[in-house]
Amino acid sequence: MKNYTYDAEKLKDWIKKDGIKKFAVQVPAGLMHHAKAIREEFSSFGDCYIYAEPSFGACDFPQKQQIQYVDGVVNLGHARIPNITSERVLFLELYADISPDTLSFECSPEVLGKHTALFTTVQYLPLLPSIKEKLKDAGINAHIGRPGKRTMYEGQVLGCDVSSPCALAGYVDSYLFVGDGDFHPHGVCMQTSKPVFRYRINERKIERVQFDRERFLKKRYGIAYTIQKVTDVGVVVCVKPGQLRMHTATALCDTLRQHGKKAQIIYANNISPAILDYSGFDLIVSTACPRIALEDYINYKLPMLTPQEALLGLGEKKEYEIDQIL
To answer: Which end of the chain is more exposed for a tag (fewer CB within 10 A), N or C?
Structure first.
């Protein structure tokens, strides 16, 4: 597969052990344009199909009734979430096809501090030891946190779990994300006032991640307190296996009713404005992926809160707390 490597032996062992004859490949949303080529490559391992619903993470894989015409599903590009049962699903990680020898950057303790916490997503995990050594040569002690409850590896983060680097808050001066984009580093920015940096491998540079935490918190506090002014509250429960938080939703409904609100649960698989904006509610509390409420809220007409924000607005919590699925 162009630009990526994977453990073909892991796939072969799964096929042999589970007696897989027909399997579907669930392709990450960002690689769906390569679906045809992926299917052709994986056909060398068996009778292969493409599962056309894109995967947004290891939390998002088909249930048994959705794959009854194949023997199993390969969730491509993600590491398994340890505390989630996934029957007939193989999580096959993709790694960026980059040699550690090609890594290059300039940095100093004056920028990163003497201690920094390294973190990344699955595809760059094999590069962390080499980056750690290069930072050491530059006079910087790089620390790699233990896995969180939803991650398999040291230094790994998900959109819903950034506990690996954040657990090192008392030991580091900064955080260094390996990779592109804002999604994952912003997850750490939400949790800390310490500087967060990003190492763009292809551009060979380290840069400060721009995030106004004070403005973010001010905005979220304001949205949280809107719950005091509304009556009808819809509490979203996502049926994706790794986002399903029914206990959180039912407990929240009880609390909302104690505060005089009319609360109802809404089941959904893919959450969108088309589903929620015209549902008849005054406000939505999402127990699905926390990043939907925290970042996608601008796409919705209705106010959208996380469970922690709802409790804050009701006076059940005194301080702001970032929602994580742990």
So the answer is: C
Type of residue found at 298: I
Q: How confident is the model at residue 142 (pLDDT cuts 50, 70, 90)?
A: very high
- Provide the 8-state DSSP code for 280: S
| Rounded Cα–Cα distance for residues 323 and 326 (Å) | 9
Q: How far from 152 is each of 149, 163, 177, 184, 227, CA to CA, in Å?
A: 8, 12, 17, 16, 37
pLDDT tens digits along 213-267? 999 999 999 999 999 999 999 999 999 989 999 999 999 999 999 999 999 999 9
Three-state secondary structure call for residue 284 = strand
- The backbone torsions φ and ψ at residue 280, rounded to the nearest 5 degrees and listed phi first, read 90, 0
Cα separation, 165 vs 116, in Å, equals 9
* Helix, strand, coil percentages in the chain from 3-state DSSP, rounded to 5: 35, 25, 40
Domains of the chain (ranges plus CATH)?
4-96 (3.40.50.11840), 100-211 (3.40.50.11850), 214-313 (3.40.50.11860)
pLDDT digits (tens, 9 = 90+) for 175-209: 999 999 898 999 999 999 999 999 999 899 999 99
Could you give the CA distance from residue 178 to residue 183 in angstroms, rounded to a whole number? 12
Residue 62 has pLDDT above 90, yes or no: no
CA distance 326 to 182: 21
Question: Do 209 and 112 form a contact (C-beta atoms < 8 A)?
Answer: no
